[in-house]
Amino acid sequence: MNKKIMITGANRGIGLAITKEYLNKGDEVYAFCRNINNSSELQQLSENNKKIKILQMDVCSEESVKKSSCLMNNYVDLIICNAGIGAGYGGFMDIKNTQEKFLEVLNTNVIGPFLTIKYFLSILKSNDKKIAIISSLMGSQHHDSSNAYFYRASKAAVNNLMVTFSNELFEKNISICSYHPGWVRTEMGGQNADLSPEQSAQYLIERFDELTIDMTGNFYNFDGKKLII
Q: For residue 219, what pLDDT is reported?
C-alpha cells in the first residue's frame, strides 16, 4: 500500500533524495521548504509527478509552521523532520562561533522539529503513525572531538527532544526515533563523504519502514545499528 509522507527541508541534499526515493516508490509526498522560488529541482519533480505537493514553510517561525499546518487538508503516515543547518566546524575560538549563529542553528535544528511535530501531529491518521528526526552521530554525548560546538549541541538537543516526545506520544501509539544519515556527499557533508544522498535516502527509508512502537525513543544509524544518545 502506498504511503503519504511529509518532509521538511525537501529542496536539497538528503531531503531532496528522500523525496525522490519515495516518489519512485509510488508514494505521495508533501515536500516543505523555506522558499519555493529557490527550489528548482522540486518544481521540476512536480511538473512530471502529480504525487508531490510543494509547500512553503519556515520551520524557525511558529507563525509560519502554524499557518502551514492549517492549510494541510490530508493525513500522512510519516512526518520526517529533516530541515537543518550546519555551523562553524572549528574550535571554540572559530570566528564563525557567534551568538547570532548559535541561535540560528538552535532555531533550525531544535525548535524547528519541535514546532513541526507540535502543529502537524494531528495529521498523523494511519494505524501506523510515525515520526522521524534526521539527527547526526555528532550529537552523541560520547565523543572525544573538539570542534563543531553549535552543530553538536543542536543535534544532542534534538535527540533529547525526541526521547521526551516518545514518552508523551507512547500512549497515542505514535512511534518516534532519530536517525544518523551517515556521512553524506551534500553541501554540508562535503565531496569526500562516504555515501551519496541517494544511498543515504534508501537506507533511511528502510529504517523508517521497520519502525514500530517497540522501537520508539531510540537513536539509530542509517544501517540499523542502535546508537548511544
A: 98
